[in-house]
Each structure stands twice: as C-alpha cells, then as structure tokens.
C-alpha cells in the first residue's frame, strides 16, 4: 500500500468513479419513482373529488407497444455479454470486439424508437376520438403520464445511442459502468411503463 | 341661389363626413325611455366592510342596475345611432371623467367615443380597483390607492364594457364605448336628444344594462325633430 | 477487480481548465460552481431584502410615496404609491427568491459544492458536467423568475405557496396572474430540475468518491448534513416538479387538475371542472415541509462543524447529531399536513399529522442539548464565525419553540395564517439558516479566496444582525397572538389598529438590520481584494479542506491522494503537539473510538 | 466578548418574555363555548414553550459566560452524564411533554370537529368571494334555494346565483353582508367559496376555517356574548385580501328576530 500508493490510489479513484455512475443511476431512479408516485397519488385524489369521472378505453396499440418495450429489454440483455467482452478485451489488450453487441444494441434502439412511434400513434388515435389534453381528467392524465414517460425514455435512447456510437468507433474507450447504468435505466423504463399501463388501465 | 344651396349642402356632407358632430342644423331625434311591468327591487348596499365609505352616505344607497324616475321613466339608457351615421367620427379632445366617490362610481354609466380619453379619479380614502371586463378591447385591471394621481385610458373598439371594482364587489359600472358621436344617455326623466343629424335613414338603438337593446328606424329629411320612444319590459326577478 | 494500468485521463474527471470561459464561466470545477451558487444567492438575498424593506415601509405608510418605485412599475406604484396587488407581488417574489434561491442555494448548493468533495478527499464531484448544468439551470430559473418584474402585469400575487385556484385561473383573479404566474411556474419547474441534478451529484459523490480511510462516520458533520439534505431534496423536488407541471398545464393548456367546477371569478364563469385545490396543497406541502429542512439541516451541519473548532473540543456525541439529522429528514416526509389543519382536510388526518410533527421536537431538542452540553467545560474562541454559530443555536431555539403551538391543530385554529407563523418560520428556517451561512462565510472565506475577512467588521455585523433580528421577529409572535393576519398589504381592521406601534417598531428594526448587511457586503468585497493573506489553516481546524493551500488548486489535493486516519472531531487532544489532530495526520491518538 | 454575548442574550430572553407574561398583546376575550379549551391548551403550551425557551437561552448564556476565554491550560472537561444522559433526558422530558400536549390537544380539537352540530342549530350559509363575505339565511320556508353559478350578478346583488324567477325556495332567502346570529344558540355555518380560496376567521370566536372551492364544508359554534366582531379573511385570495371582511353581530334572540324580519322586507 505504501510502495505504490499513488498508482493504487489512482486506481481506487477510478473504480470509485465507476461505482459513482451506478449509484448515480439508482439515485436517479429513486427520484423518477418519486415523481411518478406523485402523479399516481394525484390521480387518486383527483378521482376521489370528481363526481363525474370519465373513464376511457385505452388505445389498443398500447399493448403492442408494451410488447415492443419488453422485447427491447430482452435484446438489450442479449447485447450485454458481447459488450462486456468487448470492454474487458479492450481494457486488457486493446483488440477489436465482436460486432454482435453493437447489432443487438441497435436493435434495442430501434425497438425503443418503435415504442415512441407507437405512443404517438396512441395519441393520434385518442385525438381522432376527440380526446385531447384538456378534454377530461382521464385524457389529461393519459397525455401527461405518457408524455413524461416518453421524455424519460428519450434520455434512455440517448444513452443507448451514445453506447452504440462508442462501440462502432474503433479504439474508443467505453466504460463498463456506463453500459451497466444504461441497461439498468432501460429496464427501469420498461418496468415503469408496465406500472403506468396498470395504473391507467384501472384508474383512467 | 341653387348653386349656393348645392354648395352649402356639399360642404355640409363633407363636414359630416369628416366631423359628424359639426353638422350644424340638421334634424333631431328625441324622446323618452320608459318601462312597463315591475322592475327588480333595488336592494340597499351594505358598506360596513368599508367604514370610510359607509360614513359618506347618510342613508344606505341602493344598487343602480335599474334606476327609474316618476312616470316609469328609465335612467342610464344609452340611445345611439347604430346604423346610418357617417363613419370616421374623430374623438373629441376632451376627456370624460369617472369618479370613485363614497365607494360608488359617479356617474354610474360613462359613454365615450372610441379613442376618447377616460379619466379615472379616486376621491375616497381607500384603495379602489378598476377592472373593465372587456372582450373586444384590451382588458386591464388597475388599482388606485388614495393619494395616487388620476390616470387616463382609451378604448379603441366599440363595446359596452361591464366594469367592476375588485375590492368592493358592489361597485359596478359600464363604459359605453361608441363608434358614433351621436349618442345620449337618459337622465332621471328618461329623456334623450340626438341633435344635428344630417338627412338620412338611421337605426336608433337603446341599450340598458339589465334589459338589453331595442332598435327603431328613423328617417330624417330636413331640420325637423322626430320624437320616438322606447319601452322596456321590466321583470321583478 | 484487477486493474492493469491507470489510464491517462479519467473520464468524468477533467484536466486543468484553460481559458477564462472554462475557468470562471462554464467551469466544471466544483469550487467555481460553489462560488457561482454563492454569488447567485447573494444577488437574490439583496433583492429579497430590498423587497422586504419596501413591504415593511408600505405596511406602516400604506399611502406613502416611495421614491423611484414608479420607475420599476408604473401600474404597481402609480405616483410612487404602492397598490395592494403590487405589495402582494413583492411578497410573492420575496418568498420565492428567499426560499428557493437563497435558503436552498446558499447553505446547501454553494457551500456543499465547494466543500463536500474536499472534505471527503475527492478531486471533484462524481459528475462534473451535471454539476455545471445544475448551476446554469438554476440561473435560468432565476432569470425567468426575475423577468416577472419587467412584464407589464408584474409578478404574481399568489404568494410563494401559489395556492390553486388563485394561481391557476389566470388574470380574472387579479393582476400578475397572467404571464407573471406562468413565469413563476416555469421558473420553479426549472429550479426543480437543477436541484435534482445537484442532489444526485451530492449523493453519488458522498457514496463513492471518499478518500481512503474516510469512512462514513469519519465525515465531518457538515458533509453529513449535505448528504442527508441531498437525499431529502431529491425526493422533495421530484414531487414539486410534477406539481408545477400540472399547474402550468392548468394555466396554459386548459386542463383542470386544480380547478373545480362552477367558479365565478371577476363575474366570469370559469370553463374548468372537477379539479381539486387540496391536491395542489398536498403536493406542494409534501415538498414544502421537507424544504424547511433542506434550508436548516445544512446550517445545522455547518454550525456543528464550526462549533467544535471554536470550542476546541468534540461535541458530546457526533453520532447522536448524525442520527438526529437523519430522523429529522425521515420525519419531514410525514408531517406536511400540519400546514393544512384548517383547510378542510379530514379532522382525523389532522391528528395523524400532529403527532409526527410533535415528534420532530425530540431530535431537534436532542441536537440543541448536545450543542449546549458540549459548551460545558470548553475553551471557547470568539471569532465572527463562532459568534454566528452560537447565535444560530439561540435563533434555532427561539424559532423552534413556537413550533410547539403550530403543531397542535387546536391551537392552530387560532394562530394559523397569523404573524405568529411568519415569526416562526422566519426565525427557524430563515434567520437561523442565514446565521449558518454567515458563520460558514466567515469560517471558509480564507479557504475560498486566500484572504482573511475583517474580524472587527464581522463582529459589528454580528451584533447588529443578532439584536436586530430579535427586534424584528420576536414581536411577530406578539402580533400573531393578538390575531394579526399575515399577507395583508395594509391593516384596515379595527382590531388591528392598536397593533400599529408594534409594526412601526418592526419596520424601524428591519431598516436598521437590513442596512447593517451592507457592512457584510463591504467586508466581503473589500477582503476579497485587500484582506490579509490567509494561511493554510488559520483556525487550527482538523478537516481535510485545511490541509490544502488557500485557495485550493484546481484539482484540490494536487497529485496527492489524501489518506484519512481520524474523524474530524479531534480537538482538545491530550498529548498532541497542538490541541488538535488533523484528519490526515498519522499521529496515534489515545482512546480514539 | 463571551461575557458580553451572555449578557445580551440574557437581556433578549428576558425582555422577549415580558409582553407574553404581561399579556400586553394577547388574544381577545373568548366569546364561544368551545374557546376555553383552546385557550387552556395555548396557555399550557405557552408555559412549556416559555420554560424551554428561557431554559435553553439562559443555559447558553451561562455556559458562554463561564467557558469563554478560559485562561488555564487545563484539559477540557465534559458535562457529567455526557451525551447519553442528555439524550435520555430529552427523550423522557420532551417526549412526555409532547405526548401530553398531543393528547390534551385532541380534546380541544375534538370539541370543534368531532361533535356534530345539533339538529336544531341555526343554519347559515357563508359565501366568500373576491373580496367580501355574504351570508344567506333560508327564510320562512327553512329551505335554501339552489345555487346557479351562471346566475351570479353582483351588480344586482345576486351574490349567490339564486334563481327566484323559477325557484320558489330562493324567493324568501335572506342575503346579508353581515353575519347576525342570536347569542347562546348553536350556529351551523355552511362554507361555500365562489371563486378562489378564502378563510373565515373571527379571533374572538376562536374559529378559523378555509373556504375551499369545489368543497362545501361546515363549522359549528355557539357565541355567548352579545356584540359586534370582525370576520376577516386569512387565506390569500388576491389584491383585496387585506380589505376582505364582514361583521359578526351577536344579538339577543329578540333583536335577532327583529333583524331577520327587517332584512326579509329589504329583499
């Protein structure tokens, strides 16, 4: 410990920085959970005070979207092992990694975009029924929840894009923690969506 | 002689076109506004929340939504030419004044022309708020603390604007913003006069804040005085 | 995990900044960001204080002319006479600026950013880019809010609590409720984003970037306070953000989250239906009460940190302080309903909210007793910093005891919305937290700038501020007991007229105390350029910030990676060369726990 | 410096307590049947809070006096009992104190909120709007006419939005700008907000209740002393908030009957 204190300390700092990305993402998830908990309680309070609560039928495309999002989580997991291999190989000897990680990552990205497109289709469907943001409380909550979830999902897409970019560039350095944090966040987005779907289905 | 006449009437038309008020001579429409039926009872206003104003009135004043005179006459009716009057009347330079005195708008109704200045004065020892609930014009909402100077405002569109004081809910008024310069507000005897009308066909409208509008068509051929009357239906509630 | 070699530059960390912009404007350096936060809070606090002067003057001379006020707003102050709505505008801006941009920024974001990484031996925050962003986002929030002064309608009049539907229905409800209120909602939403980013950074940094040997229990108490505050703030702002979003949608998109049916505002039937005004109150106070602790906990930490240095001995128990702060943080989420006792909430829930509120008294009392008990047998050094730390204890007690009353729903029936409440929160969260900031400023200024502040001026400033704030805020309680309602722009009720002499006294005290703050401003600016050059450790303190040069280099510890051997409470140590042992000194200490 | 601090702090603490002890600015005398419970609770709390305040400030002053600028170089001493003693003391003393206040406080709260109004209480509806209170009595038929927000017309003094043209119940409703009530009779006040949030506060009556738009609440109370008291708004409601008030007129039963008759003739 005393002989090469400087190098060890630097290494320690480095691994702590890796840890930080992971704690960071969990802390972020805590905050997002809190935000959606607030929305949920708003729905419950709002429903309780309203004598003429309009229930609505959720657009059918939402269920398809859900499947797409679940599929994206699976493809992300499929990319995990090759990406991890790529990272450790790069760190060990600086070799080029396999392309399959990148491929699965791009598939995930594509599925994510498909989900957003599907959400947009759901909005269009509601709009064609004459249900807009301000039409009634159910539709207000529907647009707000899907929009806020969508914005958070866009953040996840940006992270996926960043990962894919790094992977496709030869010689670019990619940190394991970035990859892990991104995948934790993406799975969380999926879980959050299923929760929201349940809330919207039972309450709105 | 004839040429002279033509010239004169030409000048008159020209003058009427540019400045309608200035048409000298011409015809006059006058008359009376009355009501039939039982008007709603005007309730006394409880000003106890504003002691300085309550003191200003020996006996409690009543609301002024419907003010009547002897012989069923109706006060605060705006009678004006709604069609037929030459356009382009320019606003008089003189401002009309509305005063807040004893937590009341004096006068209760102000008629003024588009772009004419309205001067707002607070004579009370309390803050007032003037909030014209305009739709066509720009809505504004200003407070006037005691001791602050009078201010002026203008309206650029024709509109009957209900006005309220946000601090004293019983204070209500109307700003009748007129496009024409031919208008008259009935006094206690219900009478109105629209003088200096060049020959032509006119639609005369009478407007009351509670009873709405009535119209009549009148044709002026020379310098005669036409008498017309409006009768509004009053309801107890 | 085996690491083969150290990489050349660490990602997330940065090299020495180059160029003016990178160094001082868009800096990634937590120290510069901390100073930027401090500067923002300083600007905000002087604006806020000026507003309070204008309000206090108006309260005793409601028809008095204020020179120059007409220039700021012709509609708000025709002829220099303040209108009732402009009073409320100034009040709203005072509250919002002080709570968000001063009490949240100064003790937490400013000092926390500067000293948290140093005190745990880190080179920077975990995510320097997020850190920079959080400041700039906060600055945007500030600018958006202040813009409200310069729009024709003026700032909003609905108070810093922005109760719906007053804040939601728009200009029908009064001036300032158009774009002024929109700007307010947007500003607060943006502020939430900045605070969330900041809190995330604080938590990750504390958890993962501590130097070798820096166990959690060896962290200084102020680091603990910032850490706990970050946890509170993360959850609180995560609720205020959606609440603001819904409010802005109600205002701008025609939704009805907070607006019920059948409202007739300014003779106009509103087109909304079904919303719940109480929903806004619940969401707001779920944030609002923890916000009180976001303001006060960092001050408690800073004061504890400075106190042990001034009294030259450890606190009776640092652990108890830490656990008390944690339980306060935890309880702060269970008490929001005590702001709503008379709001028509179910009377049973009032009781449910009353008990945890009363329970908060216990950790608060424990902390006070620990501070007091630690003075026993000490050797107190009197610096400006220690005076403000002692003043903090006094203020915290004075503001705290009035909480006994307001925690009880039955008494709250009488005291709710009176000046008693105003006195209570100004003392306990306003003045007490500001005392913490003053203490921190006098204490850390040498480290932040490399120069000492004038102690003489500092003490003059303390005496004016200490006596002055008591003169201002103690009488607020008397007014409240006599039933004086808050948020009135002038006092026209018969039962309030006999209280005018008290108001006059308060206004005079406020003008003098406010003026004394310019002594502080002068001291701050003058010492920055002309102060005595500061040594590395002027106060003979133990924590890591005092082991590095004043001001610290861009990477704090240079190439050194500090190793920590002790907790920071080693004052009055027997057998040591001085009476204190620094955290990174390998010296062995007898009986160290 | 330390001694100076101690002296100043002692003076501040003692001077602060004087107006409280002397009741220089104090609650107006209570005129309600439930108010004494609140007053007692407040007095008890004041005793406990006052004691805590003085004890803490004077202890702070004392310790600062004693341990400032100690000249001897002796070792630091510690408070006998240490942290553990203090924590236990705080837990027991403050814990029981707070528990006692909490439990006792319930009684006063319950007297206002948990007992229902008696069925023959006088029903009055209070409506708050920017920036005045209006009160409505059901009139001879004992029934309130329905409220129609679209019919509200302040210029005609139709503050509640009644529809007397179509509804018989509304015709005899008595609307007044002051709240007149008979002494010693329970009053059930039905709380209704017209526009934004307001609050009904009569310090003498020890009653404060918010008007929440969209949520019709009620409070009940019995006034015992004849007199005229101010009702003020305590919930920020807009620019005229400071000026939003009405009078509570507590009368004898005969006077009240007369008043009601006179008001009915004005409608």
Commentary on this structure:
The complex is a heterotetramer of chains A (204), B (237), C (593) and D (267). Chain A has a single domain, classed as Four Helix Bundle (Hemerythrin (Met), subunit A). Chain A is 82% helix and 0% strand. Chain A has five helices and no strands. Chain D has 267 residues and is an alpha+beta fold. Chain D contains five helices and ten strands. At the B-D interface, loops of B face strand 10 of D.
List the helices and strands and how they pair.
The complex is a heterotetramer of chains A (204), B (237), C (593) and D (267).
Chain A: H1 5-49, H2 61-93, H3 100-128, H4 137-168, H5 176-203
Chain B: H1 2-18, E1 27-37, H2 51-54, E2 68-69, E3 73-74, E4 78-83, E5 96-100, E6 105-106, E7 109-113, E8 118-122, E9 128-132, E10 142-144, E11 151-153, E12 159-164, E13 172-178, E14 183-185, E15 191-197, E16 200-208, E17 212-220, E18 225-234
Parallel strand pairs in B: 1-18, 5-8, 7-13
Antiparallel strand pairs in B: 1-15, 2-3, 4-14, 4-16, 5-6, 8-11, 9-10, 9-12, 12-13, 16-17
Chain D: H1 2-22, H2 35-67, H3 82-113, E1 122-129, E2 132-137, H4 168-171, E3 174-176, E4 179-182, E5 186-193, E6 198-202, E7 207-211, E8 217-222, E9 227-232, E10 245-251, H5 253-266
Parallel strand pairs in D: 1-5, 4-10
Antiparallel strand pairs in D: 1-2, 2-3, 5-8, 6-7, 9-10
Helix pairs in contact in D: 1-2, 2-3
For the secondary structure, the number of strands of chain B is: 18
| Greatest interface | C-D, 106 and 103 residues
CATH topology of chain A: Four Helix Bundle (Hemerythrin (Met), subunit A)
H/E series of chain A: HHHHH
Strand order of the largest sheet of chain B: 7-13-12-9-10
Proportion of residues in extended strands of chain B: 35-45%
**What class would the helix/strand composition of chain B place it in?**
mainly beta
Strand element count of chain A: 0
Order of helices and strands of chain B: HEHEEEEEEEEEEEEEEEEE
How would you characterize the largest beta sheet of chain A? none
Mean pLDDT of chain B: 85
CATH superfamily of chain B: Cupredoxins -  blue copper proteins
From the alpha carbons, calculate the radius of gyration of chain A and give it in angstroms. 21 Å
N-end to C-end Cα span of chain A: 61 Å
CATH class descriptor name of chain A? Mainly Alpha
Structural class of chain A: mainly alpha
